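Worked example 2:
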Amino acid sequence: MLRCAALQPCAEHFFTEATLHLHGDEREWASVAGFAGLSPGGLRLLHQVHGRTVAEASAAERERWQRPEADAVISDDPSVALVVRVADCAPLLIADRRLGVVAAVHAGWRSTMRRIAAATIEALANAYRSDAGDLVVAIGPSLGACCGEMGEDVVEAFRREGHGQAALDAWFDRAPGRRARFDLWRANVDQLVQSGVPPGAIHSSGLCTRTHAGVFHSYRAAGPQAGRMAAVIRAKRAASA
């Protein structure tokens, strides 16, 4: 299990490694729940669809939760743990130092293109009056720019989505004679900063899943048989209101 030292005072959280595969094995999910200090029924998972929808797992809706189609989830409920599953996509765990509310985000290139990080910051503000300046973010192991080869169609998809030339130049290394390489970490950091999160409050593991395929699951390395890792976060009660 990996944790972020800067995020730990704000929320209980962890990133799993390749020791769990997390397809349909109930025993493995029971282990994840146990690490979070909960029964399996306390996990809040998503049907991830590579979009920008943000679900809410609030205390008020605790008994009515049904797994939604979404790629981020926010909560003010310390009795549940938010979960996203990844195998090269970037998992973002977010906590508010002041209010104790949290979010988990599945940010692959498609959701990053659709600004899922910004949508999550906006959702925290709308639901809980969270201020971006109070947030701490941990970006877990995911595909690094070293291995993030993309076709030119992906670059053009970002352009059509409204990302300007400066962003494309910063996020895509388009050296002559090779495929573009996408910096998933940089793109998410930039979008978080643009949403008001202080740069010093954003912490990336800097670990590429494909480079370290013996430690982490990587779809690029293993294909459809790749396992999945979980990024898990649980709210703490607000330190102040």
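The mean pLDDT is 95. The radius of gyration is 17 Å.
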